[in-house]
Amino acid sequence: MLIIPAIDLREGKCVRLVEGRLEQETVYSDEPAAMAALWQDQGARMLHVVDLDGAFSGSPKNIEVIKEILAAVDIPIQVGGGIRSIGTVESLLDLGAARVILGTAAILKPELVSEACARYGEAVLVGIDGRNGRVAIEGWGLIADKGTVELALEMKELGVQRVVFTDVRRDGTLKGPNLEATGELARTTGLKVIASGGVSTTGDLKSLKKIEHLGVDSVIMGKALYSGAVSLKEALAIAEGAPEVQG
């Protein structure tokens, strides 16, 4: 299982939100590129970068910071937030992103997902953000009239092979991941799933590890790492199947 530290960008800073709410923001670093380098130095093999300003506005707003992050590390980076045109997909991949994540576009522009998958294959992921089983879009500000599993199956038909699944109610809360919904999504669709939202303890990681066989092969970690609730070293040890780190 792959552990992917998150770097959420807002106004050029590395932040974390609670349930996607701007009024519940914590700034963890004024230098996101330095934070990216730190995670790489600690053993991360991939990073998850989200342009929060882009997610709320509908177009990327932190491109220069993303460029700095890409220049600061050698490991692959997946980028999401406000990607709603094939031109944006192309430009981010040209800059060096390994993967791009389409979120709101999956609901509003399914034809974009189809075109992007046809052009770029596995480099295109879809972010499926759920609240009470329904899909949340536009920075989680709106709830679409569509279930998360239903959307995932539609995306699979368009060529998507991997999704990022986030339970909005758990994100940034340290309340634990929604194991049932995450496992159901993987089992029902056959897609590869990156779990996101709520991971707060080594026990949560061990629980996710138990559903890895369903296709949940990666987990994004944010607040747990930034707050020190779980160290990246501990997380990597569990994910890679090594003996639990003591101390």
TrEMBL record:
Signal peptide feature range: none
An example Gene Ontology CC term for this record: cytoplasm
Subcellular localization(s) per the UniProt record: Cytoplasm
Assigned keywords, A-Z: Amino-acid biosynthesis, Cytoplasm, Histidine biosynthesis, Isomerase
Pathway(s) per entry: Amino-acid biosynthesis; L-histidine biosynthesis; L-histidine from 5-phospho-alpha-D-ribose 1-diphosphate: step 4/9
Matching Gene3D superfamilies: Aldolase class I
Enzymatic reactions: 1-(5-phospho-beta-D-ribosyl)-5-[(5-phospho-beta-D-ribosylamino)methylideneamino]imidazole-4-carboxamide = 5-[(5-phospho-1-deoxy-D-ribulos-1-ylimino)methylamino]-1-(5-phospho-beta-D-ribosyl)imidazole-4-carboxamide
GO-annotated molecular function: 1-(5-phosphoribosyl)-5-[(5-phosphoribosylamino)methylideneamino]imidazole-4-carboxamide isomerase activity
Protein EC: 5.3.1.16
InterPro entries in the record: Aldolase_TIM (IPR013785), His_biosynth (IPR006062), HisA/PriA (IPR023016), HisA_bact_arch (IPR006063), Isoase_HisA-like (IPR044524), RibuloseP-bd_barrel (IPR011060)
GO biological process entries: L-histidine biosynthetic process; L-tryptophan biosynthetic process
Pfam entry (one): His_biosynth
HAMAP family registered for this protein in UniProt: HisA (MF_01014)
NCBIfam families registered for this protein in UniProt: 1-(5-phosphoribosyl)-5-[(5-phosphoribosylamino)methylideneamino]imidazole-4-carboxamide isomerase, PRK13585.1
Family: Belongs to the HisA/HisF family.
Name this protein carries in UniProt: 1-(5-phosphoribosyl)-5-[(5-phosphoribosylamino)methylideneamino]imidazole-4-carboxamideisomerase
Organism of derivation: anaerobic digester metagenome
High-level lineage: unclassified sequences, metagenomes, ecological metagenomes
Gene that encodes the chain: hisA
